[in-house]
Design brief:
about 40% helix, 6-stranded antiparallel sheet, 3-stranded antiparallel sheet, disordered N terminus
Length: about 230
């Protein structure tokens, strides 16, 4: 996510490998041309960040474009009281469209980004982004597709909030987590879910119990198994 400038100020114990081509780049971004991969090799750096680290905060400026090689990153908004609103997850082979837009306009971040699973990121200097749009067709197509897919995902989130009841929102939320991790076991507490859906823990617990009675989920301590 081209999104994570000024990481050094708040990311601890960071493993940094400079200008070392990782074979994972080709595997995760198979549509990149050889010429583009060569430029990434000569200009990019790699950062390994542990789960739990916040790598972008509201109000910061983006200094680079970031590609995700491994792990998972949560993109969300945070209100004045610390409440969270989940927007989407970044998976390997993806970048953050919102960060790209803000970076090219030199605007402050309006999002938060937290590493959910240990992540390896490719950090690309921001000045290269515009130049690559002109020089590399594969980069241009990647950026446009990133914008398109994230726009559709955000629209789906907005529709879900505007037109669905809380029980439907909860099912949609669990489905997104299931798709993001590629698994049926979702390791979240009822309070964490409530915070992201901007409701109370009691409401979430009651709705999850109803889902369990319907055979949709199985509830365990700090873990929800999605059955259907």
């Amino acid at each position: 996510m081209g999104c994570f400038g000024s990481l050094c100020s708040f990311v601890l114990n960071l493993s940094l490998i400079k200008n070392t081509m990782n074979p994972t780049v080709k595997r995760q971004f198979p549509n990149f041309s050889n010429e583009l991969l060569s430029e990434i090799e000569s200009t990019a750096t790699y950062q390994t960040i542990k789960a739990g680290e916040v790598i972008m905060r509201t109000g910061q400026y983006f200094k680079s474009t970031v590609l995700v090689l491994s792990g998972q990153i949560k993109i969300y908004r945070e209100d004045d009281d610390g409440g969270e609103f989940l927007m989407y997850y970044l998976q390997p082979g993806q970048a953050c469209a919102l960060s790209m837009i803000c970076a090219t306009k030199n605007e402050k971040s309006q999002i938060m980004a937290k590493v959910i699973e240990d992540a390896e990121l490719v950090m690309i200097p921001l000045p290269l982004m515009d130049r690559w749009m002109m020089q590399h067709r594969s980069w241009y197509e990647f950026v446009i597709e990133t914008y398109r897919s994230r726009f559709e995902e955000v629209l789906e989130v907005v529709d879900n909030i505007a037109f669905r009841a809380m029980d439907e929102r909860l099912e949609f939320y669990l489905k997104r987590h299931q798709e993001a991790c590629g698994c049926n076991e979702i390791k979240l507490s009822h309070q964490e879910i409530a915070s992201e859906l901007n409701t109370s823990r009691e409401v979430i617990s009651r709705l999850l119990k109803k889902m369990e009675q319907r055979g949709l989920v199985k509830l365990n301590r700090n873990q929800i198994e999605v059955l259907k």
